[in-house]
Amino acid sequence: MASLPRSLTRAQRDFAAARYLPLAGELAALLPVASAVSTPAEMAIAAHVYHLTTRTLIKLSASPYAWISAHKGVEVAQASSDFQAIGECRRDLISLFHRAAEYRKARDIAISVAESLRPELTGATPQAWGAYGALLSTGAIAAARLEDRHSALDMLNEADEAARHAPNLALGYGHVPIYKMGVSIVLGDAGTAIEHAKAVIPHQIPTLERRGSYYTGIAEAFTLWGKTDRAIRALFIAEKIAPAEVRRSGTRQVIAELLRRDPHSKLSGLRGLARRVGVTL
């Protein structure tokens, strides 16, 4: 049990570097240890393990297993009474409901959990603020899917406030602007998404995982906007930074859409990229 925090730290570094497949093996070894915890402090660490497991399984498109991990994470986090762990694990459920197209449930859970956690924010750690802001950002995407612009923007504004209380590695520089990009894309406003992207200095984004997501978001916005050459350039940058991010289902859909627009692949390098990530028409 004493080695669990060190092992978790190593696993978090692999996630930040977008090394999802090797990370899955590490987490498989950590889960039996996490399931044997007993004290609140140990449960908080175990909740972080389940949270990281869920995030990794989502990245690998293994949603059925992610649901199991997410529910276990919520259970352990609640038992730990750790604010950060509760926020992280509740956010995982919101993400999964969103991916299951249960947008109303995802939005409503985000609003409800935020209301329950908000009174505890006074004196909260930066890490807890970070978890709170991440939960709201995820809920904002679900609200946008419902065309609930008001709730989406309210949650993003509150996430901005949370980011001011959290250091870079707690919420992550660029986190909220990237989610603002996502909300704008969902609402069909590609130009606004690119404006949010311009507010970010890419090399200051602290993790390769998030930096790759930034560029795939730019690619999606430019695809929506019809600027295919810029979309492809962003995809190439993303592939160089974090290849695993380009292989995710959402980005593969963007590549497929670009191929559909030019079935003879006159767009430089697009067909080669498609082959590398397993996209065919």
Describe the overall structure.
The chain is mostly helical. It contains 16 helices and no strands. Among the domains are: 81 residues, no CATH class; 85 residues. Helix 5 packs parallel to helix 7 and helix 10 runs antiparallel to helix 11. It is globular and about 60 Å long.
Element-level helix/strand string: HHHHHHHHHHHHHHHH
Given as residue ranges, the uncertain stretches (5+ residues, pLDDT < 50) are: none
Give the helix level as a range of percent.
over 70%
Largest sheet: none
Give me some keywords for this one.
single chain, 281 residues, mainly alpha
List the helices and strands and how they pair.
Elements: H1 4-16, H2 20-34, H3 40-59, H4 63-80, H5 83-99, H6 103-117, H7 126-145, H8 149-164, H9 168-171, H10 175-186, H11 190-198, H12 208-225, H13 228-241, H14 243-246, H15 249-261, H16 270-277
Give a short overview.
The chain is mostly helical and 281 residues long. It has helices spanning 4-16, 20-34, 40-59, 63-80, 83-99, 103-117, 126-145, 149-164, 168-171, 175-186, 190-198, 208-225, 228-241, 243-246, 249-261, 270-277. The radius of gyration is 19 Å and the shape is globular.
